[in-house]
Amino acid sequence: MTLTIKNKLILLGALSVAALSFLSVMMYQNHATIKKLNDTANAIQTDNELVTEAQNQRFLLVNNFYSALMARSSGKVPEANASPIHDAIIVMGNDANKLLAKKATYLDADRLQESKQLIEDISSITQVEMPKLVESHAGDDAFSTLSAKLEDRKIKLSKLQDSLYDSVLTANTKAQEAADLEIDSANKTLLIIFGLSLLALLPLVTTIILSITRPLRKSTQVAEELAHGNYTMNIEGLDKHDELGKLSRALNDIKSTVADYSGQIVAIGKSQAVIEFKLDGTIITANDNFLNTLGYALNEIKDKHTVYSLNRPIVRVANTANFGPN
Predict the structure, then answer these.
(1) pLDDT for 14-57, tens place per residue?
(2) pLDDT tens-digit series, residues 234-243
(3) Helices (H), the chain
């Protein structure tokens, strides 16, 4: 089956589109994978922020607890301490609930539940027991016992929060490393695929282009030879059934026709008197038969008008051809 130039160009375009489509699909898949890994890393980072926030709120709560104890002589927990304690309890509880709701594999649900229980205990100590003792003007022993109780819960909560923080940090590091590896792998894969695509397409594309340009170059050479009067060259591609084959056959027909006309002109020039005019009657050239018959030299008549410049029989000949002004 012979492909026409049109079909070759269509094939070339189809191959280019196929290669680009394949690369686009690979890039999309890699992008989706990388996005998923980045989403995981971002989610872990959010968990890290929640754990860090809970740790900060714990510090804030404890500081305000001891500040309230120091001001207990008034018989009332100062609002400046009670409000931050209340807010810290709410924030720590919400953070624990958010972490539990995520059900992340790197977060130990039992530790989260335990930390949630400790937060409730601390809430009871700081918002229920302490205000009662302050209002009742309890003795120092009672406040010492309450402080020890808070310290116990605080130490346990601190260990749990630190453990959760380490788990989240480890998971975040692993997720980031996995994302970096995936990005590196994706880039290498794309480069390999791109390189292989070029290796596969380049010979085919080169073959298609050369199958078009080589015959065109040869046809151009044939046309130049014809223009210089060479009608003996061989024309290739006459048996092809595409546009280039049609061009070769057309050039071959032109060669045959022009060679025939050229032969006729040469024969006429040898057997008859021939003079060549421009459209305005100016003489271009004449052959020897004409010059000898009428007794002119070529330089006497070349580039001269037959009516005004000559006065021998050539004038009558020219006038019979209706050259010159009316």
Answers:
(1) 777 777 777 777 777 777 777 777 777 788 788 888 888 988 99
(2) 777 777 777 7
(3) 5-70, 79-102, 109-124, 130-135, 140-227, 243-271, 288-294, 298-301, 306-309, 313-320
Does this model's pTM top 0.70? My answer is: no
DSSP-derived secondary structure for 235-276: ---TT--SHHHHHHHHHHHHHHHHHHHHHHHHHHHHHS--EE
Total Cβ atoms within 10 A of residue 228: 8
Q: What is the pLDDT of residue 80?
A: 93
Q: Are 291 and 298 in contact (CB under 8 A)?
A: yes
Burial of 283 (0-12, 13-18, 19+ CB in 10 A): buried
| 3-class secondary-structure state, position 322 | coil
Task: Sketch out the chain's domains with CATH numbers.
Answer: 5-205 (1.20.1420), 243-320 (no CATH)
b (16+ CB within 10 A) / e for 193-204: eeeebeeeeeee
Q: Tell me the backbone φ, ψ of residue 286, rounded to 5 degrees.
A: -155, 150
Strand partners, 229: none
* Closest among 165, 158, 82, 154 to 121, alpha carbons compared: 154
Adjacent-strand bridge partners of 285? 276
* Amino acid 319: pLDDT: 45
